[in-house]
Structures are given as C-alpha cells and as structure tokens.
Amino acid sequence: MKTLAERVIACCRELATFTEEPGSTTRTFLSLPMQDVHHALRVWMERLGMRVSVDAAGNLRGIRRLCASRKNYRQASRRLLIASHLDTVPNAGAFDGILGVVLGIALVEALADQCPDLMLEVIGFSEEEGVKFGVPFIGSRALVGTLDHALINSGVGHAIRAFGLDPADIPKARLTPDTIGYLEFHIEQGPVLESLGFPLGIVDAIAGQSRLMFTFTGAANHAGTTPMNLRRDAIAAAAEWIGCVEALAGNTPGLVATTGSISVEPNATNVIAGLVRATLDIRHPLDETREAALNQLTTSAEQICQRRGITLAREQRLNQAAVSMNPHLTGLLTQAVTDAGFPIHRIISGAGHDAMIIAPHVPAAMLFLRSPGGVSHHPDESVITEDVAAALEVGLKFIYLLEAAHV
Amino acid sequence: MKTLAERVIACCRELATFTEEPGSTTRTFLSLPMQDVHHALRVWMERLGMRVSVDAAGNLRGIRRLCASRKNYRQASRRLLIASHLDTVPNAGAFDGILGVVLGIALVEALADQCPDLMLEVIGFSEEEGVKFGVPFIGSRALVGTLDHALINSGVGHAIRAFGLDPADIPKARLTPDTIGYLEFHIEQGPVLESLGFPLGIVDAIAGQSRLMFTFTGAANHAGTTPMNLRRDAIAAAAEWIGCVEALAGNTPGLVATTGSISVEPNATNVIAGLVRATLDIRHPLDETREAALNQLTTSAEQICQRRGITLAREQRLNQAAVSMNPHLTGLLTQAVTDAGFPIHRIISGAGHDAMIIAPHVPAAMLFLRSPGGVSHHPDESVITEDVAAALEVGLKFIYLLEAAHV
C-alpha cells in the first residue's frame, strides 16, 4: 500500500503543476489547466477499465462497473460515490480536494480484480472553492439539483459552453437512485490530528457558519489635534470589538470566530480612522450556539459603538446550517479505521466541503487525513505517505463493510 | 474689519479653485495651479505697494518697505515675517495654510498709510504638507538652510527648475539678520477652541511626535479548522495592542496616540490573519513624556506578541522633538488678544507647522483660529467671519506691540 500511496502523492504533485499561474498552483472552474487535469486522470481511469465522462457542470466522472476477471459478473445494483474537488484557491497546495479524487482512483486500482458488489463512481468536482464566480460548490450542487437558473445564466453558463459543454444538460448530472453512499477523503486543513499524533479523523459533522461584514463609521480627524476624549475613532472601536470576538470564542467550546479582513478609511498614519469594515467568520457544530454567539457579538458591537458615538452597520453574507454526516456510514468508517488498526478521533469539520452539499440527499461520510503543520491553502500544504496509505487501507475496508451492510 | 475678513474668506475660497483635480482642492509643490495662486496674490500685494518675488524654493515673498504717505520715512531696521503655506493635501479645504498668507496681506492692507517701524514680509511657503515628495516643510526649510543637497538633487530640484527657478539660488532664500520675529496664523484643525467657544488660541508649543510602523507576524491559517487555542492571529494581537494605545493616551494628560492605518495579509474573511502592519502616531508637548509612552507601548506590544507566539517588528519613521514658541513674542500676542477683548486660551499644537521649522532660528509666535466642527484636510473645512476679523484686529495690535517692544 505504501507504493500506491507514494504514487498518489506524486500524482497530486504533478497535477499541481497544471495551473493558471506559472510558479504557483491556481486552477479555477473550467480553466484551461483543468482540461489537462481531466486528461491525465481520464488516461489513468480508462487504463483501469473505468468509463469516463465529463458532465455538463464540468465534473469528471469515472465509473467502475465491469470486473473482467470475475466470471459470474452482474451489474451492481448499488452505487458508492467517492468524490472531492479538482479546483483550487489561488496559490494553493497540491492536496486540498484533488487528493480525495486521486485516492478514489487509487482505490479502484487497489481493488485490482476484486469485485465487491458495489458500483464505484469516482467524481472530481469542477468547483468547490468559489474563487471564479464567488459562488462555491458549483460541481456538487449539480448532483443535487440546486444550481439555479440565475447562476447558470450568469458567467457560469458561459464558462460551461466555453469548455465545450452544454448547460442544458446539467439535469443529467443528477444523482442516480442507485446511489447508496458518498465518501470523501480530504486533508484536515487544521492542526488537530497532528496535535493528537493521529493519521486519520472521522468527520461527525460540518460546522454551520455565518459570515458578516461589520462596518464601524466614526469621524476621520487629525491625529495630532483631536484630544482623545473628543474622538470617534473607528479603528479603536473595531479593535475593542475584535477583542470581544476572540474572548467569546475562547470561552465557548467548539466555537471558532475570526476577523480575518479589515479595511480602513482613510487609512493614513496621521488621520484618525473614519470608517472600518471588519469581517466576522463564526462557526460551530450546533446552529443554536452559533446563532447565540452571533447575537452576543452583535450586541457587543452595538454597545461599543453607542458608547463611542460610532454608527454600526451589519451585513450578513453567509448563513449556513451545520450538516451531520450519516451515522450509519460514519459507523462503518469508524469500524474500518479500527479494523485497520488506527486510533479513532471523531472531528467536526470547521471547513465546508462537497460532502455538506451531498449529505442531505445521500448518506455521506468523510475521512480526514492529518495536515502537517495544520497548513492548507498554501504551497506548503502536504500529506504524510503513511497517512495516505492508511486512508487507502481504510477505504478498501470501508468498501467491503458497505458491501456487506446491505444498505 | 468685518468687510476685510469677508474679503479674506472670499479670497481663500477663490484660491481653492486653483487645483490639480477639478472639483476638489489639491495643490502640491510647484504645481501649475500654484502659479495661478502666486499670480493672484502678487497682483494684490503689488497693488498695496509691496515688492514681490519668488525665491528659489518656490516661496512667494512680498515686502512692505515703503510708506509713501509718511513724510519722514526711513527704512525699517527690523523685519517681521508673517507666513504660512500655499500647498494643500489632496481633496483639501480652503483655509489650511493659505489663510495665514492671505491674512498677512490683509494686515498690510489694513495698515493703509500707518507706518510702524517694522519691515513686514509676507511669505507663502511653497510646501508644508509633504504630499508630492513625502518630505514636508520644503518651503520653510529653505529659509533656515536645512534643505539638504540630496533632497535638492532629487525630484525637488527638478520641480524647481520646471517652475522656472534655479536650485542654485536656494541659499539666497535664507532668513536675513534683520528678522526679529515670525508670526503664523493658522486654523486650529481641532475641536478645542470650538468646544470652549473661543475664537482664537495662542500656541505655546508644537507637540513633538513620533511615527512608527508596528508589524505583527503570526500565522495565516484556516478560520474554520484552526481551534482558538492553536492560533497565532495577527489581527487579534494588533487589536489588543490598539486597546493599549488608546488606554495609555486616555490616561496621560496631553498625550494623543493613534493607530490610523492598518494593513492585513492575506486579508480574507475565512483566513486567520498572518500579518498586520499597524501605524502609531504619538504626540506630546513634553518629549520625555512622549518617549516614555512610546517605550511603554513598545513593551505592551512585545508582551502581547510573546504571549501569542507572534513576531514583532518596529520601525521608526519620524521622531520630531517638541518646539516651543518664543515666550516674549507669545506674551505680546497674548497682550494683543487681551487688548482686542477676546478670551485667552493657550494651546499646544498637535499638528506640525512651518513655525516649528522657523522657531529654532527666529522668535516665533502662532495664533490659531477656531475650526468649526474641528474639521480640516477636508472640503468642509471652514472659518467664521468674526474669528477672521478677530485675528486681523489681534494682528494689527501685535504689530504695534512688537514695534514698541524694541526687540
């Protein structure tokens, strides 16, 4: 399994050279380098006897349905999807998303002439990161029928046609009724597994998240001539509130809350800030905890602003409920990890994933691989060969457990 | 005096239309609209019998030395400079700087055929704001001989030649030995006089100031997958420190300290900030108090960063000692304000002014005019007609007090 794991990693690293930006890895929805990725993976899948197509949302799909060496072959009546995404953020690493697709193909290769009674479909989603159109999950949303007409009629439809596909065929990309499960491998993108010394983590749920913009409007004024008590300093107000954000998240188990972006006007050394826009990204596995925390932080901001003579505006930009993975499939995955001899750690995903889109429609499970240094969305993103081998081993065991489970 | 005050204001408003940016007032060092300002003021000064020239640093200089109506006229042996600057910040108001020049000319007009035994020289400095070359006080520094060769040989010299002047003549712009005083009228650019209900303020000193850049380097990471206790969040660190800046200034009389500019990397909603650059502008009339405060804020930043696993870098960009106005001249100015029937308020200027450059070389005094709303460096900048009339009245009394003082 170690040799195959090494090939998986080498494959991901090679595919990372297919980029819109020479010298770094940037591959957005249906860009030219995405064609090269499709071509490379198609060659591999066809060599394994898979039937390969690209659906109208630009998802690369490979189906293993024949098992030439099995004498009494019959078409499997149940389908397992193994999927993740092929697009990247700008200046990305080599593993976020695409590792889950390459692992799916490697599992088909590892099965060799074994023929579990499951149709395996490996999917490389065209779009998860939301870089090109500011809208994430275009690939997986096509499978569950939630790509709306307004989106398709926008630049997305144009990009689909430019890629040689027909947006009118998007309904054909829908999940088929024989689909009984969805499995996604993904790097953790966080430091938890590494801090525990565990190679794998079993995802229980994907945290709900809200994203907002808080705008603090004070009064720009001269930094030298305006006494402290006569200021309406938007930076000072925002800074006080950012302290509240950090403190509340620190005191609320499972809550993460982040101000990651700040813009200031006029943003001059010698001028008191008149306006600050500060973002809030807040996530928790329980929607009610997230909503209560958001209310509390809004109240904090209001109180800070009232005391300082500052005007507050709040704009919600994302409000996404938590999504649980399927308990039965997650149980099978836990069994597979145990059978393979690895320690069990159940984890909440703080990041959104395609599994979140699929889970309301098909039983879904997710396996995280340890992220060295917790690094992701960065060229330094990496995986450990032994962890990839562990994931392959667990994947094989999961396939047989699912086959036996008569779901 | 009210009619003359109204003309002063109308003149400033008209000169504000001489701009590099149609629709707003922007007039940098030796720009084309500066020529128009020179022309307009030259016409007025020559009508008053003044001898007008432009020195090699681009300063407009008008000398009243003849007093035709006085029978026994003799050349005055002592010279009083009345000066301020003609350049502006981008999108400026109509009064910052130029009001002090127009008031100087208006005082010559108000003297009419009165002949105090003082040579009056009105100077419109070419550059105070530092917009064009990032170097302030080019005009006044020519008078005291601190324009260094490196600066002149840079773009400044080129701009001087383009304006039809010869940088080699800059030494001729130096102060003459007969100069016994310097008087600068300027808008307060702050809310203090307005909050007191006073038209005028007598400047005791110009606060010393330091400007620094503090850089907080943490680790950019995923906002959803990085637990609060494993973060090295540069925004959270900077926000905590900004709270210290505000608190220390609030508790230290006379201290103003401002973070006016923040830049964040990567500055994305869903990414913990890896790097924040935050400026510090800190001012106090006592240099030792400013330096102690700066040391304390540096220590605070170091402690915050150490606790959070953040790297701190500190870069000093300006370190300017406080400058006192001349006590004798300031005493005469106080007497003039009292004689004119206005209340006395001694004030520390938090902003730098040309008087700060001149004061170490010639006795200098400064009179502030109330800034409605405390607004400056903004198109809404204004002055009150009665305050301008008050300044004219005080200016005339000051001239006679200085004449009588035998300085």
Description:
Two copies of one chain form a homodimer. The first copy, chain A, is built from eleven helices and 16 strands. The first copy, chain A, is α+β, with helices and mostly antiparallel strands. Chain A folds into two domains: 2-206 and 322-405, Aminopeptidase (3-Layer(aba) Sandwich); 208-320, Alpha-Beta Plaits (2-Layer Sandwich), CATH 3.30.70.360. In chain A, strands 1, 2, 3, 4, 5, 6, 14, 15 and 16 form a nine-stranded mixed sheet that branches. The two termini of chain A are 28 Å apart. The model of chain A has no long low-confidence stretch (mean pLDDT 94). Chains A and B meet through strand 8, helix 7, strand 9, strand 10 and strand 11 of A and strand 8, helix 7, strand 9, strand 10 and strand 11 of B.
Short recap of the structure:
2 copies of one chain form a homodimer. Chain A is 37% helix and 23% strand.
Spell out the blueprint of helices and strands.
2 copies of one chain form a homodimer.
Chain A: H1 2-15, H2 32-47, E1 51-54, E2 60-64, E3 79-85, H3 98-111, E4 119-125, H4 138-144, H5 149-162, E5 179-187, H6 192-196, E6 200-206, E7 208-217, E8 221-222, H7 234-251, E9 256-258, E10 262-265, E11 271-272, E12 275-284, H8 287-308, E13 311-320, E14 323-324, H9 327-339, E15 346-349, H10 354-358, E16 364-369, H11 385-405
Parallel strand pairs in A: 3-4, 3-5, 5-16, 6-15
Antiparallel strand pairs in A: 1-2, 2-4, 6-14, 6-16, 7-12, 7-13, 8-11, 9-12, 10-12
Helix pairs in contact in A: 1-3, 1-11, 3-11, 7-8, 9-11
